[in-house]
Amino acid sequence: MPIPALRRVLTATSAALGALVLGLTAAPAQATAPLNYAALGDSYSAASGVLPVDLSSPLCLRSTANYPHVIASRTAARLTDVTCGAAQTKDFTEAQYPGVAPQTDAVTTDTDLVTLTIGGNDNGTFINAVTACGTAGVLSAGKGSPCKDRYGTSFDDQIDADTYPALKAALRSVRAKAPHARVAVLGYPWITPATADPSCFVRLPLATGDVPYLRSLQTHLNAVVRRAAEETGATYVDFSAVSAGHDACQAVGTRWIEPLLFGQNVVPVHPNALGERRMAEHTLSVLGLG
Q1: What is the largest CA-CA distance in the chain?
Q2: Which pLDDT value is given to residue 189?
Q3: Cα–chain center distance at 57
Q4: What is the spatial distance between Cα 79 and Cα 98, in angstroms, rounded to a whole number?
Q5: Catalytic choice (45, 145, 246, 270)
Q6: Cα–Cα distance between 8 and 265 in angstroms, integer?
Q7: Which of 14, 43, 180, 220 is catalytic?
Q8: How far apart are CA 225 and CA 158, in angstroms?
Q9: Does 220 participate in catalysis according to the annotation?
């Protein structure tokens, strides 16, 4: 081979080898920083009644097995968990208890992800409806629809008049603190089956006609939560399909929600540990995380 041609070959070979060496010795790409994750919300977010208890805020009945902790463990996120049992939308911007700061104090411009379940405690919707209908069911020996007959649309009317605007205001307060964060608003998994199950009356003492009444009330609340989420740029996490067949009338190991009586949690009519895990998993799936 002529010398000039040989030189060109050697030069090209040297350049290729140099590029290979640089490729092998170059610093690895910067690892993705963990998500800054703020978890807000009520007892369904806090997993009130599920062990172990988070002793950092005893008044909130928060569990370290709640869905925010499951999400954080699956994504290696930096979690700030301020979920609190009995929280209402107003507690996003007001102190719920002495020493318990407004929940949006946990949200900053550096927050990447926010999750929350909220709205069920406004107007006492869940506790008032479940207590009233449970009492009515016992007094009627499970017959008829005494709760529906007495309360009619009053719970639904309060949801439209009060809960919906309060939800929008709460979500706007989150967005104002973290304009670039992903905000996931979780609906409430089914508490009751679609129709009455006579074998469940001892655990969930609702009259036959009040089971669909409460189911309809929960459907309405979730629809309002969805609407508020969509109108404020948040992602709504819908449990209507995935939680079907996992209501409080199902067996241990199947149900996500504990019944009113003879359940396994200290706090009845709330998610158990399995329910919290499933809520986390579905949220991760909806958000494309984990």
Answers
A1: 107
A2: 98
A3: 19
A4: 23
A5: 270
A6: 79
A7: 43
A8: 14
A9: no
Question: Can you give the chain as a three-state secondary structure string?
Answer: CCHHHHHHHHHHHHHHHHHHHHHHHCCCCCCCCCCEEEECCCHHHHCCCCCCECCCCHHHCCECCCHHHHHHHHHCCEEEECCCCCCCHHHHCCCCECCECCHHHHCCCCCCEEEECCCCCHHHHHHHHHHHHHHHHHHCCCCCCHHHHHHCCHHHHHHHHHHHHHHHHHHHHHHHHCCCCEEEEECCCCCCCCCCCHHHCCCCCCCCCHHHHHHHHHHHHHHHHHHHHHHCCCEEECCCCCCCCCCCCCCCCCCCECCCCCCCCCCCCCECHHHHHHHHHHHHHHHCCC
The pLDDT-based confidence of 13 (bands split at 50, 70, 90) is very low
Read off φ and ψ for residue 272, nearest 5 degrees: -90, -175
Nearest to 218 by CA among 232, 206, 230, 203: 206
> How far, in Å, CA of 242 to CA of 289, rounded?
18
Q: What is the pTM of this model?
A: 0.88
At 211-227, the pLDDT tens digits run: 999 999 999 999 999 99
Using one digit for the tens of pLDDT, what is the confidence trace for 69-89?
Answer: 999 999 999 999 999 999 999
Residue 10 has pLDDT above 50, yes or no: no
Distance CA 266, CA 142 (A): 25
Is 173 part of the annotated catalytic residue set?
no
From the list 69, 73, 72, the residue with the least C-alpha distance to 83 is 69
Cα three-residue angle 16-18-20, rounded to 5 degrees: 70
